[in-house]
């Protein structure tokens, strides 16, 4: 189905994103707000005087891993969530277990016709703990079948948790799985596992090496700062290398390098692959090559001319995944960033939203590099326990070097997600005037694949050097923006999530553009973490502004300019659910008209269920 925009049937609305109250009303509102704030502050002081303050530590920190809960929400008034609301929040085509807690993706690989995903899993509860490896397989990275647990904490060297790890596939087809375990004495060590039968396409049974652990914290590294080994790569000398995260002197994030010839014995190299002061503990490190022609993906061991290397780290201090592109010297095992001002942890982010612990693997079946990432909940543990599940994985993304900018990676949903597309609707050159909202009548809006392109009118502006990035959200106006989409919004716009571009005047008459998501009005519930996410996105002279948005109930993934900047968001509306959810265009710029062209597909649900062992599906 293809539709065209009719301004008589879809009249623009005055944007409720704007503050249209009178100066007298605003002054009165400000005075009233100050009085209320003072009364609340007084009540808080009295209450704290009566009750001693106790700081609640996030779950997981005491055990030596990154935070796995949101204790800041404990002081919020609990919302009266219904079962219908909880049911709506569960995704329809993103991977998540049938129930309980999930976090980091582990050891993804392709083997004998099946994609394998292992993941951190609590088989007993919807909160973090009792960490084992869940296991699922897929033919196409979209439809998944749950398998029995792959690795469980049953030895002294992993009894307190089978933590993150990576797979390495050898030339003869052997599969090496290295993972972090927490010992009975709370020491992080690295362990080796391998399939009991490598000819089994499902890899149902795994054996742990009798000589585990194969690596222990070296001198100078604390027992809880040594985790998450990467996929190994083969050096020019025929020796395998791998790296893992740690920190030095509490503030310097580092990636250690080990050599091995048999994956049982390891030699720690002097020095580090790389270190960045001020970034703290690095975990879930990833390291892989990219071709500078930007057209093909590379096996992890690829070296030579025309190749750069990506170093990525998940920062324990900030819970953000950062990456940088640079040059790797396989002789010295040192990596140097192309731009030291955008080094790991201080520059580009893998995803500017709610996203962590990402991991890539080389898909030898389709010759592509595929990226997984963990999206956790931003509600309370109480809510998660009531609904019985927590967390999901992003749609797998392909990763390529952006040869147009020479500074970015391009992330894009794997092509298989397009198999879920149902009916489509087309809108051509919809005019969105400053301060207006335009409804897009497409029916159901909770499972969508949206391609949108925006063109702004030429304007000679006297404003220069506008300050800010995403500002205070979509209400923060500038000459050229913000403009974009309102997803998962109700008809009255009392709940909405803007996804938008915010071009700002810079020196020399140029524009610096930010790509953003504003969650602050996504839900009327107070016990939900809501913020404005975003980052800078290069928009080249020959490009219009374009975005792709995947909407799947409570998860929204947004890709700007072909995937140069990506934002993942979790949203928990109370009214904009089921048939009440709507989609709008908006333009909150002060000075320019915007024309938007869109193609929108409704998406089907993926089949994600237990493996039917009673049938021969292998």
How big is the Rg? 25 Å
Q: Span between N and C termini?
A: 37 Å
Q: Estimate the global geometry from the Cα principal axes.
A: globular
Work out the count of structural domains. Answer: 2
Q: Strand portion, in percent?
A: 35-45%
- The average pLDDT value, as a whole number, equals 91
Low-pLDDT windows of residues: 19-34, 40-53
CATH topology of the largest domain: Tachylectin-2, Chain A
Instruction: Specify the CATH architecture of the largest domain.
Output: 5 Propeller
The CATH homologous superfamily of the largest domain is termed Glycosyl hydrolase domain, family 43
Largest sheet: 7 strands, antiparallel
Transmembrane segments: 28-46
GO molecular function, one term: beta-fructofuranosidase activity
Keywords: Glycoprotein, Glycosidase, Hydrolase, Membrane, Transmembrane, Transmembrane helix, Vacuole, Zymogen
Subcellular location: Vacuole lumen
Written overview of the protein:
It is an enzyme of class 3 (hydrolase). It comes from Gossypium hirsutum (Upland cotton). Keywords: Glycoprotein, Glycosidase, Hydrolase, Membrane, Transmembrane, Transmembrane helix, Vacuole, Zymogen. Its EC number is 3.2.1.26. It holds the Pfam family INV_N. This protein is mainly beta. It has 2 domains: 315 residues, Glycosyl hydrolase domain, family 43 (Tachylectin-2, Chain A), CATH 2.115.10.20; 184 residues, Exo-inulinase, domain 1 (Jelly Rolls). 7% of the residues lie in helices and 40% in strands. The protein has 3 helices and 37 strands. Strands 1-26-35-28-29-30-31 form a 7-stranded antiparallel beta sheet, with no helix packed on it. Strands 21-2-3-4-5-37 form a 6-stranded mixed beta sheet. A 6-stranded antiparallel beta sheet has the order 25-36-27-32-33-34, with no helix packed on it. A hairpin with a 5-residue loop joins β29 and β30. The protein is globular, with a radius of gyration of 25 Å. About 5% of the residues have low confidence.
